[in-house]
Amino acid sequence: MRPLTDEQSRRRLVPSLTTPIALIKHCAAAERIWFQRTIGGVEESQCDGYAWGDDQSWVVPPMQTLEEAIAEYEPLPNAHERSRAPRSRAICSFTTGAVRSVFPGSART
Fold it and tell me: What is the pTM of this model?
């Protein structure tokens, strides 16, 4: 598969903010919301980027490239380094009791 160019990644195919590059930006924000804020208990101002699930999470600055957006979503290139990423640390330290407090209807143990 041929990678998209920056121009192609910004092309709107539907009447919304959804573009390939915006989807990557939104996923990065969603991961910050879940893994840094919700699970990790990090204050929004301390997150390593935008951490709200509103329309702003889809906004890509004009000068940001597709490569930069991908790096923002997945900043660590290999699995060994990824284990030190905030989302991985949050998951590893999460207890069953904590899952129930975040997701009260969860019956999983």
Answer: 0.68
